[in-house]
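ERR on first pass: missing label on line 2. Operator R.T. fixed the label and resubmitted. Corrected input:
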Amino acid sequence: MEVQEPKRRIPLVGTVEGVLTVFKHVLMKPVTVQYPEEKEYVPERFRFRIFLNLDDCVGCTLCEQVCPNKSIKMETVKRNNPRNKRMIYPDVNFGTCTVCRNCQEICPTDAIYLTHVFETSRTKNSFLYSPEELAMPEEEVKK
Amino acid sequence: MSLLSFTYGIFKVLGYDLATFVTFLIDSIVFLLVASVAVAGTIYFFRKYMARVQLRIGPNRVGKFGTLQLIADAFKLFGKESILPRLRDDLPYKVAPVLVFIGLLVAFSILPYGSLYYIGDIFISNSGVGIILLFAVLAIMPIGELLAGISSHNKYSLIGALRAVAKDISFEVPMMLSVLAIVVMASARTTNSLNISSVVTSELLPYGILEPLGLFVFFISMIARASYTPFDMGESESELVSGYSTEYTGMRFGLFYLGMFGTILLGSFIVSLFYLGGYNGPYSSDIGLIYLLIKAVIVVVISFTVWLAMPRIRIDKFVNFGWKYLLPISVINLVLAGFLTIYLGW
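pass 2 clean. output:
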């Protein structure tokens, strides 16, 4: 196929069109969200923060087995729970969690589930949530 | 009544010689301050405008709506270490930024700014050859850029300076020719056709309506003079790190930066004085300054939009454009101006 010469246009018309297109953007609203002061819109069905109900967890390790990139490890917590004789509970590393919700799907007692909270910003090396922290609301974990 | 006589009236008790000296001194200092603040305001306006064009918000943390951002930036530049290249050519290296900035400020003091109620006509120098003086002063700034490029001992600076000079040569001849057309038209109505204020006062219609070609050539020349994006080959930060200002740091770089934005403001004033009717306007002649400011701000907005909309053109294309298109257009414009003046008496 032959490469065709671009169609000749009147000079400066394209230039003026470009300038006008740029000028139109002045009238639009800025898309920047000033994060700490104003919050980004989060859809209603958005899920991120994993929550753990310590009383319901039976320590079956299914969530650890199903986690695709091994973000969940089982951890021993000294706690008096007759349904969890081995006293092992999952902890979650949110640095590698892909929010696939496999753990919620497979959990036989619905002890582990994802919540609507999305503000889990951490410093480096503090993405790991222990089982007790998973059971707390986010505001208390920050303290 | 003018700004000078207004100030002279205050210092009349000092006697003629001393009062004249103090009058010019104080008016010049006031003018320098006002010009510097106006340039800073231009930079703030540019940053806000660029942000809004790119759907951002722009500076909004320092002061209300970020108005103090420029002062913060100036303090930052003052506080920075001035790193000097080891193999520099010392005197030109240090003189160059000052030369650019002084050329700008002197050019500001040559223009007339119309009148305001009690102060009267605002000008510092009402020279009989104001137009020649203005463009002579404007020709100082490229010398500063050339000195900066050569004395930095850096190949990017040198190439940038050479490009800047090639650019200057190719647009200055058409620019002067289009100004000459204005002088030709003004000479039919005033004996003082090289004086800027008599050129502006004596016009029948704004020269931009009578000479649209001249306006086109002159506006492009002013864009090239200020060397922003369509014609910023002297700087071209994507190819030559920063052109002639590569080796400059701290406030020396800040002077180049101020010089660039100041030239945009100055170019807008010149375009609105020569082509858009300057401080002439309907209703009242007492608010000429406000008319001039409105026109200048409109030209500044157009300049910024052009800046943000266009890519940089290649240096050889610009040289071609200058010599093959702008020069013939300005010659045609000159002939048309002569025709209008002689046969139609406009």
